[in-house]
Every structure is written in structure tokens, then in C-alpha cells.
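Figure 3 (text version): C-alpha cells given as input.
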């Protein structure tokens, strides 16, 4: 089975979709997919689907969803949805889910950074980010557990973007990063790493005044929104540009 969660949810067996069209069965599959190979307890599925107010028919309804998923899988020639004591498991290797490839490439990028091989690091980080087709599970309703998983994945994605940009800067590609960094800092106005990268790219491109303006904008936002000053690292970068 091939499962993709880094964007719209997709799951195929022999090129045939095994996903239902209804929202809640898709939600069940999505939670099982992001925890592939691990048992998801029934109470966790209840909380995911209905919060802290599951209906009296919750057990029967969940079993109906599971039957729908199993029928779709068996029609495609697989039998991967197992019952375990107290829960269900999507019994596929973790490598069946695109997150595994993403995390493998990110780790390869980090190892290259440790070797100071920034060209290779940038390549691996780019390849990892290319696996994303949009926000994680963008077409699936999310309850408590899936919201946590989506947040974890999106945080990892942003961290990988930061790592890729750092590697690109170390390869001297500051000019080509300017437009992207302008968008990213506007989208994440409290992110100090992105601001530092933006300041660095601007300064190296001969735009020192704009680099200082980027710092002032971040500082104003941090003080107004959080009541804190920029980190010592960012203040040092700012002083180096004066």
C-alpha cells in the first residue's frame, strides 16, 4: 500500500484507491495512517471523531467505518486493517507512508550539515520538501489527535525550510532566496530564524538598510505581541550590520 499524508490524503493498493469518500471514515484512516504499525486505541478514535461527547452508538458506528475501510482494502487486494486488543492497527510498514521518506531525507540533510557538506544538505532538504503537495491532510477533518499530528508535521516542514535556506545561504545563493524569504517572514512574523536568514540574504545582496528594517519590524512585533526582545543571536546579527 502507498499512503500519502503530506497534502491531500491518498492511499492506493495496486494503483487502486482504498479511501472512502465520507469524511469520518477518512478521518479514521488518516489517524491509523499517521500511526501506521501502531495500535490506535478505541477511546482515541472516539475522541478524534466526536471529542468528549461520543454518541451512544459510538462503538457500532466505529465498527461500521472499519468495515467500510476493510471492504475497500480487500476489493483492492489487501488486508491491512487489523484488530488488536483495545484498538485497531494499519498493519503496513512505516515506509508505506510518505512521511517516512520525508523524515529519511531530512535526516540525510542533517547528517550532511554535520559534515559541512552544505550543497548535499540543501539537495536533501529540497527533496524532502518536494514530497509535500500542500498542507498535511488538508482534505481531512481533524479532531484532537489528528490536529496534534498535523501540527507536528507542519512544524517539521517549517524547520526543514529553515534548514534548507541556511544551507542555501552557506552555498552563496542569497540573491535567489530574497523573494522567498520576504514571503516567509510575512507569513511567520515572529520567526527569528527566518528573520535572521532574511537579514543575512539582504545584507549580502548589498541591501543593508532593508536588513536593518527587517530587524526593526521583527522587534516591534515581538514586543507588541509577546512582550519580549529578540534573542541575543539576532541582536548580535543586528549589531554586526550597523
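Below: residues designed for each position.
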Amino acid at each position: 500500500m502507498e499512503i500519502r499524508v503530506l497534502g491531500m490524503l491518498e492511499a492506493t493498493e495496486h494503483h487502486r484507491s482504498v479511501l472512502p469518500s465520507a469524511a469520518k471514515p477518512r478521518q479514521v484512516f488518516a489517524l491509523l495512517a499517521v500511526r501506521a504499525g501502531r495500535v490506535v486505541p478505541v477511546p482515541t478514535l472516539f475522541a478524534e471523531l466526536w471529542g468528549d461527547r461520543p454518541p451512544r452508538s459510538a462503538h457500532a458506528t466505529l465498527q461500521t467505518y472499519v468495515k467500510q475501510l476493510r471492504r475497500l482494502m480487500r476489493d483492492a487486494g489487501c488486508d491491512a486493517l487489523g484488530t488488536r486488543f483495545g484498538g485497531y492497527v494499519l498493519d503496513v510498514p512505516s515506509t508505506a507512508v510518505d512521511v517516512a521518506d520525508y523524515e529519511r531525507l531530512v535526516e540525510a540533510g542533517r547528517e550532511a550539515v554535520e559534515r559541512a557538506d552544505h550543497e548535499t544538505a540543501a539537495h536533501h532538504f529540497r527533496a524532502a520538501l518536494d514530497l509535500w503537495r500542500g498542507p498535511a491532510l488538508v482534505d481531512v477533518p481533524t479532531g484532537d489527535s489528528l490536529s496534534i499530528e498535523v501540527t507536528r508535521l507542519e512544524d517539521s516542514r517549517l524547520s526543514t525550510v529553515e534548514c534548507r535556506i541556511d544551507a542555501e545561504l552557506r552555498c552563496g545563493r542569497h540573491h535567489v532566496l530574497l523573494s522567498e524569504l520576504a514571503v516567509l517572514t510575512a507569513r511567520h512574523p515572529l520567526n527569528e530564524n527566518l528573520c535572521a536568514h532574511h537579514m543575512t540574504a539582504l545584507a549580502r545582496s548589498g541591501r543593508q538598510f532593508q536588513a536593518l528594517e527587517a530587524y526593526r519590524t521583527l522587534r516591534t512585533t515581538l514586543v507588541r505581541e509577546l512582550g519580549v526582545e529578540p534573542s541575543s543571536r539576532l541582536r548580535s546579527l543586528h549589531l554586526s550590520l550597523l
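The longest strand covers residues 10-13.
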